[in-house]
Specification:
Layout lengths: L1 H20 L1 E7 L3 E8 L14 H4 L4 E9 L3 E2 L2 E2 L2 H19 L5 E6 L5 E10 L7 H10 L9 E13 L2 E4 L9 E12 H13 L3 E7 H9 L2 H6 L1 E6 L4 E7 L2 E8 L3 H12 L3 H11 L12 E4 L6 H4 L1 E4 H25 L9 E5 L8 H9 L3 E3 L18 H11 L21 H10 L1
Parallel strand pairs: 1-6, 6-11, 12-17, 17-18
Antiparallel strand pairs: 1-2, 2-3, 4-5, 7-10, 8-9, 8-10, 12-13, 13-14, 15-16
């Protein structure tokens, strides 16, 4: 849609305006919770050695001055399902974060996990005009990338050059100023359903806010949960949310693949609700306090009191063993991990130099999950927590906030922002890379 492209073109300018004002909000629109962080960029905050902040966070020169979370409403599979309910939930989270920060926020950068992401690898090659690689050469090589037909109703979400090669030297991060004859690039493109972005744009506008950027939750979670070595050598981040599970694979500090499984923690809750014949709220509570996926001999004897709210105490009061609860939860968790395995195999994950897998997101907190994931995914698996960033409240340092923290780091250092070069119009291929590159240049 033309309107969508125009709004995306405006986002980069909005982000820069927000940065000049010094305050921007981060919004993680999930299926189970909506989290909002208010960041202040003023260059006044210096990091102490004892703050324990991560390397990227230490360079970020921002501070979290407000944080709030509220139960998500009207979001299914990471996509807006009921506009009015989602609008109310976003307003609630943003207003609470503004109140804590004691500042009004007009611009937000949002992330979401729906939209059925698809990854594409592109490449282009040109002869260098002079002896030295200039910004014009990079513009031309990006224009040479021939974009596949992404299909009707889909939109580019991320477009990042992940590698440059000059003559026979590959793996260059930034070839500008180097001498050579032939310049080549590899690019990674992520597309999602455009209706999902349109709905998010419209919902945020209804909240009297301006969208200054949008990113994939799986990408944001990977930025904050993978340590520097993992991002460099190769690792996968599995972001287990409420309505969907996002997958991102990183290599040389760039995301090289993205996908999602339309199942998450809410599906486990739903299974408990049906299996134990209790209300979803009670099922969520039971999952949080007693859940697990690996049963031991003790679990047969550990009884969980299950109640419902009909008002008949004698009728409501009953117990189930923890082993029974694990028996309900494990098949669904196994199903999610099996689907993740299929996606990783399709991406050729086993060919990377390192095959570390990091589980993050609210759903990753189920006890015993890393052990089960080890068996199913067959790789080194650990539970990831987001990097420490300045001012982040203790309550927001858990795995469930990986995407929100990652989006904060992304707001401070957009990986693709500095490739803002003029791309000659006559160099666009017939299959119209023009639209995607224009979006890519002007959105971030």
């Amino acid at each position: 849609m033309r309107d969508l492209y125009q709004s995306q073109r405006a986002q980069r300018a909005m982000r820069q305006a927000a940065m000049q004002r010094g305050v921007i909000a981060i919004l993680d629109v999930g299926s189970s919770k909506i989290a909002c962080l208010v960041l202040r960029f003023d260059g006044q905050d210096h990091f102490n050695e004892n703050d324990g902040v991560g390397s990227l966070a230490g360079q970020s020169s921002f501070r979290v001055i407000g944080a709030a979370t509220t139960r998500s409403r009207g979001v299914r599979f990471g996509e807006i399902d009921a506009m009015a309910e989602t609008e109310r939930a976003i307003r609630t989270a943003v207003q609470a974060a503004q109140k804590m920060a004691n500042v009004r926020v007009d611009h937000v950068i949002a992330c979401m996990s729906g939209g059925r992401p698809r990854s594409y690898g592109l490449d282009g090659q040109v002869d260098v005009m002079g002896q030295v690689v200039t910004e014009g050469d990079i513009g031309r090589v990006l224009a040479e990338c021939d974009v596949p037909d992404i299909g009707e109703g889909r939109e580019v979400l991320h477009a990042q050059p992940i590698n440059f090669a000059l003559d026979h030297r590959s793996g260059l991060a930034d070839p500008r100023g180097q001498i050579g004859q032939q310049l080549a690039t590899d690019m990674h493109l992520v597309t999602i359903e455009d209706s999902v972005i349109e709905n998010l744009l419209y919902c945020i506008k209804r909240c009297d806010l301006e969208l200054a950027g949008v990113a994939s939750s799986a990408y944001a979670a990977g930025i904050s949960s993978l340590v520097e070595d993992e991002q460099e050598l190769g690792a996968a981040c599995i972001d287990m949310g409420g309505g969907s599970t996002g997958i991102s694979i990183f290599m040389r500090k760039h995301m090289i693949y993205s996908d999602s499984v339309r199942m998450g923690g809410d599906h486990v809750t739903s299974d408990i609700s049906m299996g134990l014949q209790v209300a979803p709220a009670m099922a969520e509570r039971i999952k949080t306090f007693y859940g697990g996926v690996l049963a031991t001999g003790m679990d047969d004897r550990e009884m969980i009191e299950v109640g419902s709210d009909t008002g008949d105490w004698e009728h409501d009061r009953r117990t189930v063993s923890r082993a029974e609860l694990i028996g309900i939860m494990r098949p669904r968790v196994e199903e999610i991990l099996e689907e993740v395995r299929v996606r990783l195999d399709a991406a050729g994950f086993e060919h990377l130099p390192s095959q570390q897998i990091v589980l993050t997101g609210g759903g990753s907190q189920i006890p015993g999950l890393d052990g089960l994931a080890n068996k199913i995914l067959g790789q080194q698996v650990r539970i990831g927590r987001p990097l420490r960033v300045q001012g982040l409240p203790q309550a927001a340092t858990g795995s469930a906030f990986s995407a929100a923290v990652g989006l904060s780091l992304f707001a401070a250092h957009p990986q693709d922002e500095w490739w803002d070069f003029d791309i000659p119009a006559e160099k666009y291929p017939a299959r119209s890379f023009k639209r995607a590159v224009r979006w890519f240049r002007e959105n971030w």
